[in-house]
Write a structure and sequence with these properties.
Elements (H helix, E strand, L loop, with lengths): L3 H10 L1 H14 L7 H13 L3 E4 L8 E7 L3 E7 L29 H22 L3 E8 L7 H7 L8 E8 L3 E2 L3 E2 L1 E10 L15 H15 L8 E8 L11 E10 L2 H22 L2 E10 L6 H14 L6 H11 L4 H14 L2 H7 L17 E2 L5 H7 L2 E7 L10 H7 L2 H23 L1 H14 L14 H7 L6
Parallel strand pairs: 3-4, 3-5, 5-13, 7-12
Antiparallel strand pairs: 1-2, 2-4, 6-13, 8-10, 8-11, 9-10
């Protein structure tokens, strides 16, 4: 590809800087909408590279856009940098050990994600500068992916309105184009208010909010039989109403996720679940407050961009793991269950084929870029990248930044996100996304093909899953200390 040398040299020249910055953000370990030091570190770096940075956008203090160049196409690179509550873990250590008791940790590797995206954006900027071709590269600083749905707020605010293509990546334990759908997700609090009373002397005078929570759960269990089989309903009792069994609980609360393959399905399930909670309130004589928490749409993969990214990944190659990385990965693999080890091999067999398994062999790390998966599957998780994909043709890749079988949102993932294994996956992703952006500037037909496919799949019918009355501070208030 023309410009390949510029992109690869850009990432390699800044390698030490990116590794140090990734480690700094790993150390900050800031949760959603609180990523002040992390966002500032990336935004400052963009400014030093000649980007114009607009901070605090869409009502979120830690959201920003860095822009370089002029004209079309406008290519967005998405970055994240939030951590997960309660996943503090010592870096590179293959045994569970909290770094700071009860603190957050990068159990999904967003320190790597944010800096890999930064490397790609800077490499694309260097290409635009050296080549003189028209185009604009933007780095979108996206807060609150783990909880808060920052990208959904960004899309609702219209900040992707003139974007032609969006690229992103996510740390994983394999190297592949993310050519799969994900589940839409709406979440809600049910807060019941009853009346306290002595549970033995005068239970007839009380109205149990906890009974209402439990009846909602019973109703939800019956509802599961009558929704699409791919949907998921899960909950936590976030306020049981107290610890005294001889007091009728006057207040209680549950927190639900409604996931489904399409946002329209999730909305229907959400409304039916709210009716269940209303029925529980009627049965118990309690008052119900329904508090919308957060929402995101299903991810729509774009095959045109998937094929484009596949070529760029093959050009960039896999992570350059060395003997020390392999030795460390073996130690992390030893902490996994047999089921965890087997699950990833089954996934590789289904999506990448036996040739990739043979190429990996018995290695604990995937350094192979496999073929593009062309099937139609829906992964059971959710991501607010889905909302970007609803309004802009979007391509997403994953790169190995952890030992095969490592589970997301685990202490092992936190440890490896702060290790040489994670950093090498991050740099490989930066190279691949940088190549993808540079090639897009040289191929206007790519934009048109991607747009045509996007229009055929989603059209222009996007409706934000977050109501206009809900602001980022409302979400932060409602989901405080609740992991996504």
């Amino acid at each position: 590809m023309e410009g390949k040398r510029v992109v690869l040299e850009s990432v390699d020249r800044n390698r030490a800087l990116y590794e140090a910055l990734s480690d700094r953000i790993w150390g900050f370990a800031e949760t959603g909408f609180q990523e002040r030091a992390s966002a500032a570190a990336i935004a400052d770096r963009l400014e030093s590279e000649g980007f114009t940075v607009d901070r605090g956008i869409a009502g979120m203090e830690t959201a920003f856009v860095g822009s370089y160049g002029s004209g079309s196409p406008v290519v967005a690179v998405l970055g994240e940098y939030d951590a997960l509550p309660g996943l503090s873990q010592a870096a590179s250590l293959p045994e569970q050990k909290e770094l700071d008791s009860g603190k957050a940790g990068h159990g999904c590797g967003h320190n790597l994600l944010g800096i890999g995206a930064l490397a790609a954006a800077v490499a694309a900027k260097d290409f635009l500068r050296d080549s003189g071709v028209p185009g604009t590269v933007r780095y979108y600083g996206c807060p609150g992916e783990e909880f808060g749905c920052g990208k959904t707020f960004l899309v609702r605010a219209g900040v992707f309105g003139d974007v032609d293509l969006a690229f992103c990546w996510h740390p994983s334990d394999i190297n592949a184009v993310w050519q799969a759908r994900t589940l839409a997700n709406l979440s809600v609090y049910f807060r019941f208010r009853g009346k306290a009373s002595h549970a033995a002397a005068s239970p007839h005078l009380g109205r149990s909010a906890l009974d209402a929570v439990e009846l909602t759960n019973v109703g939800a269990n019956y509802l599961r039989e009558h929704i699409v089989p791919e949907a998921r309903l899960h909950y936590a009792i976030t306020n049981p109403g107290g610890r005294a069994p001889n007091v009728v609980q006057a207040s209680a609360e549950s927190f639900y996720y409604c996931r489904a393959p399409r946002i329209a399905q999730a909305r229907e399930i959400y409304e039916r679940l709210c009716d269940v909670a209303r029925g529980a309130a009627l049965m118990t004589g309690t008052n119900l407050e329904i508090v919308f928490a957060q929402g995101l749409s299903d991810y729509v993969p774009n095959l045109v961009l998937g094929e484009h990214l596949q070529k760029c990944m093959e050009e960039a190659g896999g992570p350059a793991f060395d003997a020390a990385d392999l030795e460390l990965a073996e130690k992390f693999r030893a902490t996994l269950t047999e089921a965890e080890k087997a699950a990833i091999l089954g996934q590789l067999r289904m999506t990448q084929g036996p040739a990739v398994l043979e190429a990996i062999g018995g290695s604990p790390l995937d350094s192979v870029v496999g073929p593009l998966f062309r099937g139609d599957i829906c992964l059971p998780g959710s991501t607010d990248v889905g909302d970007v994909s609803q309004v802009v043709p979007t391509g997403q890749i994953v790169y190995a930044a952890a030992a095969l079988g490592t589970q997301a949102h685990s202490w092992q993932n936190t440890a490896q996100a702060g290790s040489s294994i994670g950093r090498k996956g991050m740099l490989a992703a930066g190279r691949a996304l940088g190549l993808a952006a540079a090639a897009a500037f040289l191929d206007p037909a790519l934009v048109e093909r991607a747009r045509e496919e996007h229009a055929s799949k989603v059209g222009d019918s996007y409706s934000s899953p977050i109501p206009e009355t809900i602001e980022p501070e409302d979400v932060l208030r409602s989901v405080s200390n609740v992991p996504f």
